[in-house]
Amino acid sequence: MRSTKRAGQESDSVRTLAIDIGGSGIKAIVLDASGKPVTTRSRVDTPRPATPDAVLDAIAGLAKAQGEYDRISVGFPGVVRNGVTETAPNLDTEWQGYHLADRLSITLGRPARVANDADVQGFGAIAGHGVELVITLGTGFGSALFVDGRLVPNLELAHHPFRKGKTYEDHLGNPALKKAGKKQWNKRLVKAVLTLEMLFNYDRLYIGGGNAKYIARELSPNVTIVPNLAGLLGGIALWR
Ligand code: BGC
User: What is the DSSP letter of 137?
Assistant: First the structure.
């Protein structure tokens, strides 16, 4: 167990347990004060049903295996306000109004901060200049918007209609990839990127998430594909 530091005394040795809760897997890593990983990433399948109790148990197992840390950052696949989860379309309805930050902090005995998973990915990827949009391709469709490094909160493109009365998530989420196949999914992605560029006029678009590895089409030069690890690395930003 690590010694507790007094406020304002945060030293170079502070360690953050970063957790990324996804619809298919939950991942964990420990970051040093500068945000660099000091452990090897571990992962477990997301339990089904993905109720708060089951997910908390899974996180407790991962946390134990990761060793020592002083504080916890979590990326959550839904809308989060002040540590409370409001939606979780790919987990369970029990997450509505659940104080995840408090519950985790009680379970693991360390302070915890929680943000939307795409927001955390974004913090791990952006340059901090101009208009930067982040989308994540995984079980769901994540989105985050930053202006000069400041997050515009709660952008939920996922459930916004995109084509033929269906949403971005309907067209580009994991079930859609499985159903339509990689070729069709790639075609849709190119269309979605063009639509998003017209809407946001961003300086840069970042695409992350576990399914970004299936991108097989050439995208504009202002698009960067980011490694999925950004979903954990960005956790350090929740303590800035
Ligand atoms: C949720 C978003 C989340 C995304 C990726 C969507 O279904 O509404 O909040 O960021 O999935 O997990």
Answer: E
Contact by Cβ (8 Å): 15, 38? yes
The pTM assigned to this predicted structure is 0.95
Which residues are near ligand 1 (CB < 6 Å)?
77-79, 87, 89-90, 116-118, 136, 138, 140-142, 156, 158, 169
Answer whether CATH 3.40.50.1440 is correct for domain 127-228: no
Strand 223-225 to 16-21 pairing: unpaired
- Give 78 Cα–ligand 1 centroid separation in angstroms: 5
CATH topology of domain 16-120+232-239: Nucleotidyltransferase; domain 5 (3.30.420)
Topology match between the domains 16-120+232-239 and 127-228: yes
For residue range 65-122, list pLDDT tens digits in order: 999 999 999 999 999 999 999 999 999 999 999 999 999 999 999 999 999 999 999 9
The CA-atom distances, in angstroms, between 178 and each of 3, 7, 182, 188 are: 47, 49, 8, 13
Q: Which residues pair with 133 in a beta bridge?
A: 145, 205
